[in-house]
Amino acid sequence: MQRFKSIGLLISLLLSISAFSQNKPTVMVMEIKSEIDPRSNRYVELAIEHAEEIEADYVIIEMDTYGGVVTDAKDIVENIMDFDKPIWVFINKDAASAGALISIACDSIYMAPGANIGAATVVFQDGSAAPDKYQSYMRSTMRSIAEENGRDPQIAEGMVDQTIEIDSVTKEGQVITFSTSEAIKHGFCEAKVSSIEEILERNGVEDYERVDYELGTSEKIMAFVLNPFISGVLIMVIVGGIWFELQTPGVGFPIAASLIALVLYFVPYYMNGLAENWEIIAFFVGLVLIALEVFVIPGFGIAGILGIAFTLGSLILVMLNNDAFDFTFVAMDEILIATIVATIGIFGGMALLFLVGVKFTDSKLFARVALTDTMSRSDGYTSSFHEESMIGKIGKAHTILRPSGKVMINDELYDAYTRGDYIEKDSEIIVTSEEGTSLKVKLNS
Fold it and tell me: Quick check: 115 and 135 in contact, CB under 8 A?
């Protein structure tokens, strides 16, 4: 009997230890140490979703940023304020501009020695102040967020507006920027700390489980793809794959490679909030217009020009953080880089196809995936229905060839096709080969 009691006590002890370990508070730590933009916006969104999944009791943001895009900062603020557990920010060095807005939205602010918070005036990429409509929006947002979290709204507004004068805080003509001690004095910092562990100790959080949030593999791949060089390579594969498939129809893998590159190009930009629906739609509209120009509409006119413009424009706009053609906060060098990447990608893909494509079609790899064997007359094969060889015969295009149609040779009509070239009606042609009842022709120039 004594043995059973001992076993029971042991089981109870193990259960108590298990329950105790399960009740350990969970602290999730995330970082904002880059420019506030669609990428950091998505990072925070995913981090807070992860905090909800693991049922984190506390979230700490380690911050060091000079700010960034106001609209993305506002999205981050909304995600922070919608989270129902405490979110504390540890300003390790700087929380300027949009960083100040995000910090004020947190439940508690802690700053390292020598850190700063403030200077939230909305500026362009060159440092000049944006028009008053942007400043007004930022002032209103800073004021309302500060008031919501029990901080002085006038001081928060003074971080944006240099015309605001507050006794013993700032003079007119100066935008408020607080050091650590000044932020503590005016209620914009709870305490000066040197580490996240010190924040937790001050709040009585002990024996906790710390989780440092990191992006998953798929998100890291997307971040890698957002590199302009990689984007340019993907554009080359998209264009080269489509063009190669048109030149050698039926092979299959070039168009498959093009579709994969298309997904890898658009999805990361879309998931990070850079690509809008209409920008992606514009790309496919451009492809349709180009296809109509090549296969339906004779000549090269407005449809082809518009198709190229839509396609190229879409690839450029997807890479830029514009708001429906509003490039106010888009740096000129970003526009230039996006334009160069898209242009080189498109024309580089076509050039690469011409340089490599011919050699590739003669390779052993191509022979494995494509039917390259020929059945020549010398081997006893024939598919010709003509009494005499038509190769080298000269005639005229009886209809438009795009790429198939009819040709007139010696007053007789024949079915004919080109390798993909467009040939106008009445153009002089020459037969290059015979395939069954059809003739393969090209312009006789």
Answer: no
Those residues whose C-beta lies under 8 Å from the C-beta of residue 120, and which sit 6 or more positions away, are: 67, 96, 97, 98, 100, 101, 138, 142, 159, 160, 175
SS3 for the chain is CHHHHHHHHHHHHHHHHHHHHHCCCEEEEEEECCCECHHHHHHHHHHHHHHHHCCCCEEEEEEEECCECHHHHHHHHHHHHHCCCCEEEEEEEEEECHHHHHHHHCCEEEECCCCEEECCCCECCCCCECCHHHHHHHHHHHHHHHHHCCCCHHHHHHCCCCCCCECCCECCCCCCEEEHHHHHHCCCCCEECCCHHHHHHHCCCCCCEEEECCCCHHHHHHHHHCCHHHHHHHHHHHHHHHHHHHHCCCCCHHHHHHHHHHHHHHHHHHHCCCCCHHHHHHHHHHHHHHHHHHHCCCCCCHHHHHHHHHHHHHHHHHCCCCECCECCCCCHHHHHHHHHHHHHHHHHHHHHHHHHHHHHHCCHHHHHHCCCCCCCHHHCCCCCCCCCCCCCCEEEECCCECCEEEEEECCEEEEEECCCCCECCCCEEEEEEEECCEEEEEECC
- Residue 403: asked if its preceding bond is cis (omega within 30°), the reply is yes
Average pLDDT over residues 367-391: 57
Which residue is associated with the tokens 């020549």?
376
Lowest mean pLDDT among 10-24, 213-227, 270-284, 415-429: 10-24
Please name the amino acid found at residue 306. Answer: L
* Mean pLDDT (whole number) for 349-358: 64
Query: pLDDT higher for 271 or 64?
Result: 64
- Across the range 354-372, mean pLDDT stands at 53
pLDDT confidence band for 21 (50 / 70 / 90): very low
pLDDT tier for residue 170 given thresholds of 50, 70 and 90: confident
Residues in the chain, overall count: 445
Q: What is the distance, to the nearest Å, from the Cα of residue 158 to the centroid of all Cα atoms in its chain?
A: 35
Residue 352 has pLDDT above 80, yes or no: no
Nearest to 142 by CA among 97, 108, 186: 97
Full-model pTM: 0.66
State how beta strands 87-96 and 108-111 pair: parallel
- The C-alpha atoms of residue 66 and residue 123 are separated, in whole angstroms, by 12
pLDDT at 94 over 80: yes
Structural tokens at position 444: 């006789």
pLDDT per residue as tens digits for the range 306-317 = 888 898 889 888
